[in-house]
Task: structure prediction
Amino acid sequence: MPDIAFLNGAFLPLAEARVSVEDRGFLFGDGVYEVIRTYDGAPFLLPAHLDRLERSMAEVRLVPDWNRAALEGWIAEATERAGYPDAKIYAQVTRGAAPREHKFPDVPVTTLIAVTPIASLPRKLQDEGAAVISVPDLRWGRCDVKSLQLLPNVMARQEAAEAGAFEALLVGPDGVVNEGAGSNLFVVKGGALVTPALGPRILAGVSRGYLLDLARGMGVATEERDLTLAEIYDADEVLLSGTTTEVLGVVRVDGRTVGDGRPGPITRRLAAAFRPSGSKVG
Ligand SMILES: Cc1ncc(COP(=O)(O)O)c(C=O)c1O
Result:
């Protein structure tokens, strides 16, 4: 099966999909996106992803020429055509293609859906936990919008990779740790699961919301509040959540060992509960 794209009304192999060099996504990063994952062919937490896409579009005044039901239909068809049981569905909407001028053009949006295969993170990483580093958060003031403008995230992830780390934690000028470059951050302290509160400094991760619900369902207390780097170094457990990251224990932060150096008990329980029941993913 080929990787499949849906682009502005047509399905085609992803390798054949083309957009204009005047597309505002290309020229300005003027657009928003979602990453959705399937387990055994079924998109996971799709309504929450579509809610967030609608919100991101509204916040940047992107007005699509389609409705949610149409988008859902295209996602379903692209996923079915690709045929991957475990797929990454990338959906992107830009303000369209027009001669380069900052103010909004009067053209239709560009709508892309791309379906590619996905695997869970390596078993060894899941079992042994990840290393992360902290870096300054250089992003804009609306990180609640899932914008295409990811240059600070790209720079941070590259710095992490060059340091042999899985993720970069983004630290504000006030010392508050916001989230990872592509994941939300949690710690466990005194048996409670703590994560930064929603607001313009973080993305409202779909996995984050789901994980908080899972934790409460297990009787684990949850808190949403600011976290400093000192609290993270001192946490009993540190973990990340994300659509492709799922739930991943963090065992080293800036070279310091977290807890006993292995993913902790609450992390392991949450990771085991996170995937849809019956999923065959490893
Ligand atoms: C900056 C950032 N935070 C958090 C997340 C996790 O969000 P979700 O759980 O919806 O994938 C992502 C996902 O890509 C992200 O880019």
Remarks:
- The mean pLDDT is 97.
- Residues 240 and 259 are 15 Å apart (CA to CA).
